Amino acid sequence: MNRIIWMGIGVAIGVIAFRKITEAQSNLGPEGLNRAVGRLADGLYDFADAVRDGMNERETELRSALGIDAGLEKAVSKSSAGKDAVRR
Question: Which of 22, 47, 57, 77 has its CA at 20 to 30 Å from residue 6's CA atom?
């Protein structure tokens, strides 16, 4: 009975080792390198997008807090009204 248990444990360790070795070989080849570089590039793009979104959100908060947007809206509405009057 002990031999069957140890044989089962040995087979399980062999299967796990084979899978790990196969995975390591696929990661070391050209395809694995391409996948790694692709993941890195995707991560950098995602990080840059998150930074841009944060910057835009913070800029909007600062503009609202300082009242800059209200001044721009008034200036835009005045200038567009003046242009409409001149065009007619």
Answer: 22
Q: What is the DSSP letter of 88?
A: -
Structure-token pair, residue 54: 């944060």
CA angle 19, 22, 24 (to 5 degrees): 110
**pTM for the model:** 0.48
Contacts of 36 (CB under 8 A, 6+ apart): 27
CA distance 61 to 69: 10
Record the tokens describing residue 20, joined without a space: 């790990």
Whole-angstrom Cα distance, residue 69 to residue 60?
9
pLDDT digits (tens, 9 = 90+) for 35-82: 888 999 999 999 999 999 999 999 999 999 998 875 555 555 555 555
3 class by beta-carbon count within 10 Å (0-12 exposed, 13-18 middle, 19+ buried): exposed
Are the CB atoms for 66 and 58 separated by under 8 Å? no
